Amino acid sequence: MANATCSKTKMIGRRITAHSQARMQSNVKRYFQLLLLVLLIGLMTYAIRGIYCEIIGDCHVPIHLTGLAVGVISLLAYTPDIFLPQINSYIATYYEGVTVYQLYFGYIAAMGFLDVLATLRLKRMLVIKKG
């Protein structure tokens, strides 16, 4: 009787150990994915900074006005983020469920679309200026 109980205990222990190992491997994979995501976002952030510095160079902004130009670009670029918490709060107050997320991410998509339009307009202005 003691051997049967001991065997069952060992079998349960092996199952728990196998489950724990699989779970730990899953967690390591998640942490690795999170690390890659954070590094990718950091890389993209510095790439964007390089891009807008290049745009300032293409627009022939005088060197003594470069800081002002970066400040204005940053103000315009981050304006949607300034109002995002207030907009999200308003949406969450007056709407429920999935609608809140649809409106929230719809706003973000609309701001991204406006950014694309502004970029295309700047590109067209630079082509006209060079041509």
List keywords for this structure.
single chain; 131 residues; mainly alpha
Describe the overall structure.
This protein has 131 residues and is mostly helical. The chain has a domain at 62-131. It is 91% helix and 0% strand. The chain has three helices and no strands. Helix 2 packs antiparallel against helix 3 (98-130). The protein is extended, with a radius of gyration of 27 Å.
Described by strand count, sense and barrel closure, the largest sheet is: none
Overall average residue pLDDT: 80
Number of strands: 0
| Structure class | mainly alpha
Principal-axis shape:
extended
Strand content: under 5%
Helix % is: over 70%
The SSE string, one letter per element, is HHH
Q: Runs with pLDDT <50, length 5+? A: none
What is the number of helical segments per DSSP (H or I, 4+ residues)?
A: 3
- How far apart lie the N and C ends? 94 Å
Q: What's the arrangement of secondary structure elements?
A:
Elements: H1 2-58, H2 66-94, H3 98-130
Helix pairs in contact: 2-3
Concise overview:
The chain has 131 residues and is mainly alpha-helical.
